[in-house]
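Dear colleague,

Following up on Tuesday's group meeting, I ran the structure prediction for the four-component complex that the binding team flagged. I've pasted the input sequences exactly as they went in, so you can double-check that nothing got truncated or mislabelled along the way. The C-alpha cells for the whole assembly follow below. Feel free to forward this to whoever is handling the docking comparison.

Inputs:
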Amino acid sequence: MSADLHVILGDLVSVNHRLTRVAARAARGTESPALWRTLSVLRSTGPIRLGELADLSRVSQPTATKLAGGLVARGWIERTNDPDDARVSLIASTPAGEAALAAWRAELAAALLPYFADLSAGDVETLERAVAILRDRVEATERMAAPHRLAAEPTVTAR
Amino acid sequence: MSADLHVILGDLVSVNHRLTRVAARAARGTESPALWRTLSVLRSTGPIRLGELADLSRVSQPTATKLAGGLVARGWIERTNDPDDARVSLIASTPAGEAALAAWRAELAAALLPYFADLSAGDVETLERAVAILRDRVEATERMAAPHRLAAEPTVTAR
DNA sequence: CCCTATACATAGCCAAGCTATATATCCAGC
DNA sequence: GCTGGATATATAGCTTGGCTATGTATAGGG
C-alpha cells in the first residue's frame, strides 16, 4: 500500500531541496544551477524564443533575459533574430554550451557517486524509473504551462 | 539493465532543478524554500546548535545564522543558550513552526497534485520508494559531513 | 495611419548563498 | 589566575537568481 500521494509529494519536494544543497556543495566551484537548468531546457527543446524559454524554465521573462545574458557572455548560447518578426530573439545552445553542460553533469555525478555507490541494483533501477517519471511530469507541466503558441505555430524551422 | 549510475545521477539532479521551479511556481505566495528546508532539517533532528544546523543543511554557518534570524522573526524556531557553553545557541522548532511546515507541505502537495493525478499505482509506488532512497542518502551524507570539512571526493584533488 | 497587442529589455527590489573577518567564550598550560 | 590558541556564532560585503512594474520597439488590424 502506498502512502497518500499528498504525503509523497510533500516528501518529494522536501528531499529535493535537501538534495539540491548536497549537489551544490558536491559540485562546488562550478557555475550556478540556474544556468545549467536553462541549458538543460534548451537541450531538450532545441532553439526557441526567449519567452518560450522563460515559460518552459518556469521563470519570469525578465529572469530569462538575465540568464540568457549570462549564457551569452560565456559563449554557451547564441541569439539570432527571427527574420519574420523583429521583436523575437531565438535562443540556441552552442556546441560549447553543450560541452559545458555535459562536463558539469559528469563532474556532479562523480561527486555524488560515493554517496550512492552502495545502492542495490534494485534501488538503482527504482531511481532510474523515478527520474523518468519526474521528467515526464515536468515536461507535461511545461506543456500545460505554455499559454503561448504551441499549436498554430508553423514551426519556423531551422537553419 | 540500468543505465550507468553516472547518467542517472546527472539526470536526477537536472530533473530536480526543474521540479524545484515547478514547485516554486505552484506554491506561489508562500515563504521561501530555504526556510522550509531548514525547518525540515530541524524536524528530523530535534534541537541542535546553530553550527550543526548549518552542516546538516549543507549551508555555510553565516547562511544558517541568517536563516535562523528569519525563522525567529516568524516565531517558527526558538533559540536558547546552552547552560554549559555560553557560545552555543541551541535551535528548536516551535509548535507554530511545525504547523507552518505542515501547512506548506499540504499546500504544495495540493498544488502539484493535478500534475501527478494520472500516475499509475505502480508509478506512485516507484516515486515513494525513490523518495525513501533519496532521504536515506541525504541523511547519510549528513552523517558523512560531520565537522566543517566537506566530505572529499575519493578522486585525488588536482586543483 | 493610428491603436492595441506582443516580445523583449530595463529598473529596482529582496532573499539566499558565499568568503573573510570580528567577537565572545572555552580550555590547556604555566 | 593569566595567556594564548581553538571554537561558536555574528557581522560585513558581495554575487546571483528570483520577482513586479514599466519602458520600448515591432506587428498587424481597423
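Strands of chain A lie at 48-49, 77-82, 85-93.

Cheers,
M.
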